[in-house]
Amino acid sequence: MDEKVERVLSGALWDEFCDRLKSAGETILRPEVPVDPLDRAEGYRYLTRILRLALEMNVENSEPQTPRLALGCRADVKLGCDNPDSYYLTAPLDGACEYRIRGRLGTVPVLSFGAYFGGMGSARSGCSGALEKSQIAVDAAGNFEIGLGARPGSGNWITLDPEGGLHQLVVRQTFGDRRRETVAELSLERVGGSAGAPPLDAARFHDRLLAAASYVKSNTALFADWARDFQAAPNQLRPLDTSRAQGDPSLFYLQGYWALAPDEAYLLELRPPECDYWNFQLNNYWLESLDHRDYRIDLNHVAARPEADGRVRIVVAHRDPGHPNWIETAFHARGTMGLRIVKGRERPVVEQRVVSFDGIPAFTGQA
Is the Cβ–Cβ distance between 147 and 100 less than 8 Å? Predict the structure, then answer.
């Protein structure tokens, strides 16, 4: 009998799965992690959220022979400076197969497709091919088709890694205004595929369950490393290469660590470059966006109000300073933060400083 099947039958697989999950908790106890009940509790909740995502991706929706687009990060499952404005979809792909996406455009300003191989944080990982909205040929009604495969293609085509192996398709649709905009209608199929999924294979399940546990451990460590590095320069956004974390290649990122006393505020000032979209957001220590359902913890190119001279000043403070671009800290004293720019025609000059709450400049723009 196959060794993996034997491990499923004996329960050894489950024991190893639980042991790997337990070891992931060591990251929450790192010495540089803030010792605060809120940060610590959010750290362990973060593990449960990543586990949910890992099981969905690696077990429940892991069959590249019959792939299905599934919801990725959302308001209660967050990872790696997730964008509150984005609607994320993911699906498994096999580099040895070909696939077809059919769709109809919505009205969101940002729509992008990326095929990623290797897994986040692994030694060999990256984006094998990508397309964004302006590159996609559509008909008069907004309908389109995209092909995916390892062979060379043209037009609406996304290349998969020629070495094959498991890939992840990530679809990002980003709102400027959720009240008025709609996402694209999308479907995914394997070219020449069968009508139904194969039965659950014990040996394959063995690998996928352990992959889910490894996903939890590796991603917790990856983003904890980022937070640790950000701490070296508090209240400063700096450019960050996100290629090993399945970042969108059309984005320019600045990320950092913030920490404010009760009577302090962080000011971010910039002249937004010409771009398709930008946003600034606050995250907790674990790079999860703060609660954007009940608090205003982010600001984008639609909502931001410019000053009289055209600059945008964003004010991060624990209480309302009366500024239209106030970002709430949502009971947090510290965390991480990010500024992302989609298809920026130039890199912005960003000015940052910490001031006393009473020293926050008055808004000079139009009421």
Answer: yes
